[in-house]
Amino acid sequence: MTRLLDRTFWGLTLGLFALLLLNFLLEEWMRSIGLQSLSRGCVAIGLLVLWRTGLVSFGHALFFGFGAYTVAMLQIIGINDIILLLIGGMATAGGLALVLGFLLRQYRAIFFALLNMAFSMILYGVLAKVESLGSTDGIGISQVTFFGFTASSEAYRPTLFVFAAIFAYIAAVGSHWYLKSTLGLMTMAVRENEIRVEYLGYSAEKAIHIKYVLSGVLAGVGGVIMALTVGHVDPDSMVYWTVSGDFVFITILAGTGNVGATFIGALVYELLRTYAFEFAPEIWQLILGGALLLIIMFLPDGLWSLRSEWRSRRALAAARSGKTEKGEAGQ
Amino acid sequence: MDLELLLVILVDGLVYSSYLFLVAVGLTVIFGVQKVLNVTHGAFYSFGAYLTAFLLGLWINDAEGSAWKLLALSLAIILIGSVFLGVVLGVLIERGLLKFLYNRDEHIVVLATFAGFLVLEDVILLIWGTDPYLAFRPLELMGSSDITGLIFDNYTFTMIGLSFLVALVLWYGLNRTQFGKVLLAVIFDREVSMAMGINVTKIFLITFIIGTFLGALGGAYHAPIISVQPGIGVEVIVLAFAVVVIGGMGSIPGALIGAIVVGLSRAAAVHLYPELELFVIYAIMALVLIFRPEGLFAPIHARKI
Predict the structure, then answer these.
(1) pTM, whole model, 2 decimals?
(2) Does the structural domain A7-298 have CATH classification 2.60.40?
(3) Domains of chain B
(4) ipTM for the complex shown
(5) Which chain A residue has the Cα nearest residue B293?
(6) pLDDT at A139 over 50
(7) DSSP assignment of A149-209, as one string?
């Protein structure tokens, strides 16, 4: 059991408590940024999980949008509790991933990425035409209840934030434990040499399939949080291919070293986007694109590489000082 | 189904196909040689469309003169503008961005071109603003024809001609010239051709310029038909992806077939089941990926272990 309670776990737990405390201090616009970061962070964890196998999906908005639209559809039939909506979103996104996984697990590299994109664009094409779900205008999401309780209007957003933080926490810790498990570690072996994994007696396709379902569920959670945060779902901001591009952006920004870093990446992305849009509305895409290029060029492993670089510098410094001490002792 | 409807679908589909081919062929050329799925291609298209619409608005829209003179001038603007953009943007992106990424993971390269696309889209907004540009004078000058009661602009038919011309020139250049042979060698094995003394860096740059030119040409030739406004590149690039994937990435005949498949099926959907318009394109893309992942016309690869 102690193996599971490692530094990342404690870091995430600390992060959760920090968020719950911050909740009392945050202004509403900050809380919105926080909620969106939590949502996109969940999707980016899903991408990270895939990335560890060397697979990149350019279509994860499919599951994100599916989760978000599930909220809308469940509300239409009268289900309005956050837990039921979450379970619904996870189930539909996960179910879709399970079905598509039978196909996608056979694909690698750019074909995997593009087939995902094709499926997400199919969903986009469908949602943009379905009148009962508002076609391109989308559909509004009404306020939800929390375990049957209705929050007062000023307590609604903070309560939503608490729930979103807990969902994201569970998603992150679960994913972290999965990645540390034998099953999770083996998928890294799949990236290195798939044929060898097969020779060792495990099905690489099965490992990828499990991974794909997990990442679909995570994207579904992100979609549910986003739908509740924005209070509105529409195809252009939920399912279009640029949305998938943004998720990959966050994954690269954060780096694939650690689950916790993903939320930091999502937050940085959200802040970058908000401030760029606020102060330079004509060139906000330019700023985002420029930031992404800088990261790709100078921080190949994302923000997480700042940490490892700092560590190696410290190690180097320690080694140097150790050497001089020895040298002095020798004299 | 009656024959007239079939004819309309055919004409409409072929026009749309030629438009798709013009846009997608540059993408496939670049992918074939450099193995880069170039998202910035969407911005090349927008740049071509904007520059053309702007210049046509400046010199042609209110100009006096015979129709032939104005048409020749418009064509010159389209061509020279695209060559100019091809050289400027091609060199900028290849030398300034892709050069540093050839050894990186292919997903990273796609994302870097996505970033380049975002940057270029805003550069377009900075240059030309958010107002739409209209430049349909060439369209008016060429007049229109009546096919079974539906009016088609003659300009759109010249687009079909241009597509075949581009396909022919590319085929000839690739299979009947020395540069083409060298290019094929680079496509087949980059390292061996390097060892044989081929300047691969130069070849890459030239191919990228050609690809960029084709993207800009697609936008430039399309400019008189559409309202040139922000967001046209975003839509085009994902369509071009579909075309290229259906035909087989890196194959020029593949891009032609892919464009025809997508163009005809979209036209059929628009006239028969309008609500399926977008759905059908990506459904075909998914189906092709499922049954022939390498595309309908993929070049055969030896498997490297």
Answers:
(1) 0.85
(2) no
(3) 3-291 (1.10.3470)
(4) 0.81
(5) A111
(6) yes
(7) BPPPHHHHHHHHHHHHHHHHHHHHHHHHHHHHSHHHHHHHHHHH-HHHHHHTT--HHHHHH
